[in-house]
User: Fold Glycosyltransferase from Neotamlana nanhaiensis.
Amino acid sequence: MNDILIITNYFPPETGAASNRIFHLAEGLQKHNFKVSVITPLPNYPKGKIFDGYRGTFKKTSIENNITIHRLWIYASNSKNRLKRLIAMLSYSFSLIWFFMWNKLPEKVIVQSPPLLVAFTCMFFIRNKKRKLILNVSDLWPIAGLELGAFKKNFSYKLLERIERFNYKKADLVLGQSEEILTHITSLFPKKETFLYRNFPDFEPPKLIEKPNETGKIKMVYAGLLGIAQGIYKLCTELDYNKVQFHIYGAGAEKDKIENLINTNSDFDIVYHGEIARSELHKALLQYDLTIIPLLNRIYGSVPSKIFEYGKLGFPMLYFGGGEGENIIETYNLGWVAPPTNYEALNLQLSKLNNADLSFEFKTQIQKTALLNFNFERQLKDLIEYL
Assistant:
């Protein structure tokens, strides 16, 4: 049996795309006769506080689903203050170094990036000729930070670029969740071995049931992080509610603002449902006509994993983020697109939709397309050939 270690910043019971992605990778490798262990912080995301049941400890090790999970101390924070965020990343890096000093590591290690500093800690301290380091890149930092307005092109940015290049250089294999990520990496290191590893979900697809539209309005839903990058608060203020009823699931930095907006604007046909477990969310989503996948800014290299998850649910999508994600929606006919931040174009697109566009037959076709083209098990088998 092959031993393999996964080092990540996010893992269940934390919620979100990053946590789900790494969990499915770990579980999939375990089912293919790998002895899998995971190093991750004590769960704290997205609230920025250590979860109940994990507080007051420096390290907690458990075996879950035949996977050994080492949860290490972190200074948990979701503060917008850059210094506090840096301290949080450094605290986990110090915990990793401590773990590396006292524990024998397997010869194959998968390192999640970003965060860049955490990935750098791993690539620097555990590199050796006998160990195969696999870097799993889900977003391009610091480029994404620059596009989001979190960074400026100064000394700090140049330092992060050097760290980014060091991480790619020391990796024996780089996994990228988009073609844009792999293009960027091979532009820096043309001979680097790469593998396109999409964020395909691993769950049993539901049986679709045809349901009538009772309200006459399109029941559109967003489910996910209520953060700055998604721009859900801005979306709430710009939607034309004559034809749309907007439902929201999730938590994050904009949660309080959205709740206050709903309470003070009765004309906005918005329903906030809070945060629920992913298994429950899948059942809840089946009652809606359409989902929206927004990004406030087009982020090079980013492809929201929701595309593949919703495809498997047979869920028509309105993509509002540009880039490679937009190309996937159009290539596989999964729904509609509108230019990011162009709310006039978004409302125009919504005004054109009718019941025929959101038919049971279209949903069935989306699910068939997803099952054929977004196959987690087939992709995992291909990846194992590289490991």
In short: The domain at 218-373 is CATH 3.40.50.2000 (Rossmann fold).
